[in-house]
Specification:
Length: about 210
């Protein structure tokens, strides 16, 4: 399963990816309708009051344009990241979610700046997809990584500072978290794949 390219149950994976994206749209719609500004639930760097934004920031977006720009990467990358099953995807997503958020909280912009958006997740999933084939020694996954890199290579510029209003910190730490998630999960797969030694003079089978 570790070397799969597509999810074992594509229909279920598509439903999960679409459902997550739908949640993002519903949250943005509620933010537009309500008088309260939900974006103030984002991450405020180096402030204890902004620490809980790590939980909410990926669900919030500055405006519809911000959400539209994240939609296709979120759909595609989250779907492909379910190649080892939804349980594995949940673990990978949790690692990216927390590490990218903590990174923003530690080194993000100061002042009263609120950092929001699912792009940290998108960069994390992309990085996970780019390196998992190397850790898994899977030629098919490496080929997919090359294709993804060819299509979305422009996203890599988002890892660098310089674009006003864009959280390169969230992108960078999301990508680093994706690499870490790929390494941890592939290491776990290798451990579980080790043969269990048979007892002396006996067989494992019955």
């Amino acid at each position: 399963m570790a070397k799969r390219i597509l999810p074992p149950n594509p229909k279920t994976a598509a439903i999960v990816a679409l459902s997550f994206t739908l949640v993002l749209y519903l949250v943005e719609l509620i933010d537009v309708i309500l008088p309260a500004n939900l974006d103030h639930g984002g991450i405020v760097s180096r402030r204890l009051s902004g620490l809980d934004g790590i939980l909410w920031a990926p669900l919030l977006h500055a405006n519809w344009s911000h959400l539209f720009s994240n939609t296709v990467p979120v759909l595609v990358f989250s779907f492909l990241a379910m190649a080892a099953g939804i349980g594995r995807w949940a673990v990978v997503t949790a690692i990216i979610w927390v590490i990218s958020g903590v990174g923003v909280w530690l080194v993000g912009p100061g002042g009263n700046t609120y950092t929001v958006g699912a792009s940290g997740l998108a960069f994390g999933w992309l990085a996970y997809l780019l390196v998992r084939g190397i850790f898994n020694r899977a030629a098919g996954q490496i080929l997919v990584a090359v294709v993804l890199l060819g299509i979305w290579s422009g996203m890599l510029w988002g890892l660098l500072p310089g674009n006003t209003g864009i959280s390169w910190q969230g992108h960078l730490f999301g990508a680093l978290a994706g690499v870490l998630a790929a390494w941890l999960t592939s290491r776990g797969d290798r451990r579980s794949a080790k043969a269990i030694p048979a007892p002396p003079g006996g067989n494992l089978g019955v």
